[in-house]
Give the backbone structure.
Amino acid sequence: MGRISDCVFAAWSPTIGDPTAMGWITVALYFGVSLLAALVSSRHPGRLRLFWLILSAILLALAINKQLDLQSALTATGRCLAKAQGWYDARQIVQSRFILAIMGLSVVAALWLCWAMRRDLGRIWLAVIGFVCLLAFIAIRASGFHHFDQFIGYEIGNVRMNWILEIGGIALIGLNALYLLRRKAGRRARRR
């Protein structure tokens, strides 16, 4: 185990993962929308509360991961294990299965979420779409395949695809949260 950890820390070190302006903007958006989701959670009962609370926690974790670059540590761990266990030359098969598993779990999570929240889907559909965008982004980033990295690095008029998926997903969740907060405040004002 010590040999694996030595290998991992030789390939990865905890540094700022994306020190660019867009990287820090993305982190701020994750934190801000996580706070909005927590506020929505505190103002709704039952499943809706749980949905927004879990979403808040996920967004907070993604904000922290954005700059700690923990997925690179996971990649380094996989590479070190593959070398230590002698299957490094067959790693593309394992990578493919890992990506399929991540994508499959993402689809199952999205479908389960829609089913579990079916009564409230009319109020959270925008957040669900945003969450699915984030799941897609995470699956693509986790793949580590060169052609997927090229896709998310592709630019349309100085806007990179990874920004569209990641920031777009965060924005959709944030818009849904703001809508629900505003709607709840409007109802309270009308009651007075």
Notes: The mean pLDDT is 83. The longest strand covers residues 155-156. Residues 161-191 form the longest helix (31 residues). The chain has eight helices and two strands.
